[in-house]
Amino acid sequence: MPCAKPLPWKVRIPVRYILFNKPFGTLSTFSDPEGRETLKAYIDIPDIYSAGRLDYDSEGLLLLTDDGSLIHRLTDPRHHLPKTYLVQVEGPIPADALARLEKGVTIQGYQTRPCRAEAIPNPELWPRRKPITPHAPPVWIQLTLEEGKKRQIRHMTAAVGLPTLRLVRAAIGPLTLGSLAPGQWRELAGAELAALKKLAPAPGKAGPFLR
What we know:
By secondary structure, the chain is α+β, with helices and mostly antiparallel strands. Helix content is 15%, strand content 26%. It has four helices and eleven strands.
């Protein structure tokens, strides 16, 4: 019996799962036709992509991987993966603002889903690259959303009279910034990856956030 011929393609097994603290003024991509700073300035790993993005002027946690299936599941709105943000706004906070955010507000003709919103003390964060000049005393709120449209948080806070001054993503599901400084990255630990996959299971497996 003749030997089987080798397959004409090479099966690629995903192996990299990276947590990165994206600095202010950095794109969530590896290239930019306008010459702005990208992830390439910090991460020299081929064939990885971000699972969701942060705006150019936002900071904080990004997950990057070469696991296309996981990226698809994490960005699938059916899974309602919670993401937590620290948001500096121009205060003071109106009495009903947090309740309105939690209930959902209308932005650009879209009604946002219910979320968690609370006032918090000033968090211990690194100085931002570009200093902020507020027109009123700034305060901080923490928002946990299960959706993520373009510049959604900025539109949400503006809708309740709280212009966003600074926006930092602190957590993606069970993953947190921890001690990562801006521009630093690390590999995901095995337990972290397992916890994340429970929230965004492969097809045919039920997860706690799948509705």
